[in-house]
Model the fold of this input.
Amino acid sequence: MSYTCTAFILMLVAFLVTMLVYPLVLSFARKHSIVDNPDARKLQRVPVPKMGGAAVFIGYATASLIALNMVGNIRLQWALLMLTGIYAIGLWDDLKDISPALRFILESVIVWIMIPVLGIEINDFHGLWGLHTVPYYVSMPLSIVAGVGIINSVNLIDGVDGYCSSFGMMACAAFALLFYYSGDYVMFSAALFAIGALLPFFLHNVFGVRSKMFLGDGGSLMLGTLLTMFVFRVHTSGTPCAVYEDMGLSLPAICLAILAVPVFDTLKVMFYRMLRKRSPFQPDKTHFHHMFIDVGYTHLATSISILMINLIIIAVTVLSWRLGASVDMQAYLVIGMGLLVQGFYFFIQHQKNLNNGEGSALYQRWCSRSHRSNLTCTRWWRAITRTVDGRFFSGLYSGGQSAD
Done:
């Protein structure tokens, strides 16, 4: 059996295991009141269990352990240990609500350990600005800053149903293609396992009523760490992805394109808070996804809209490469598109504040048309809800008092 076929089979294993353990995790979260309570900043109106990341982690870990038993790759073993560690930190935060400073330190330690243990770091720019391999005293701090930034940018988008998990699947699919065509089958498999584990959670998170759970900090931090590993692997000198350098594809540009919306949204939010003389870690409702919610988009429509924007950035980057753009130009193009998207946020906020807060005519038209994104009353939506809340997906453990 080919390695590719095995990887897809194990992706199915991750899907099935996540689906099977999900109701057990849901029951545990309800029994122990591990829920996300509503407040002025959050979008839900009722307490919702927030241990969905546990089901995703178990599904992913099961597929990874089977793969580890088959190939015996020591780095795969250490990668799973790193993900276990970061999940434990996130779960601790879910349970005890640790301070942002302590979580930042713990994330930095995980990334710092990851570099020598996995042998991956950002030490090769693959020709961007004429840079190739950079010295250790540059790559180490750069990798820690970039790694912690990616982890937190993924964590910060976990505020809309379906957004974090669907973005995770999209990003993992993009990295899977990069790894597959470069012959890096271990990382290709790791990306597929994540897609398989995230899909059942996505269905419950978006369509579930009785079976709804949030990913939680444990799940979002784990996903961010996995994407950090992918970025580090691409930018490590001598890895299979170096083949793209000879083809003229800017690897820094394509990685930034894959993570464009969360990364630029996080940078915008941090700078915006500091400009207003507030802590960059103080939660608020100034993220890109809040803009869509404010005008009346549903959570699913918000997630789809942002994913489409991110996919357009990826597609334009790939098209520029195919049209012969230099590696520098590809990077500038991604940066420009990322800034343009965040500029659109400020444009909409300006339109919202016109006419004494009633909004401009453009803003009011957009709001009036947003109701079209509400599909919750459609027959097919109700059918999916019945399916994910039913015994096949939610099992015997989905009964009892609803968390909603």
Notes: Confidence is low (pLDDT under 50) at residues 396-404. The radius of gyration is 21 Å. The chain is about 70% helix and 0% strand. The longest helix spans residues 3-31.
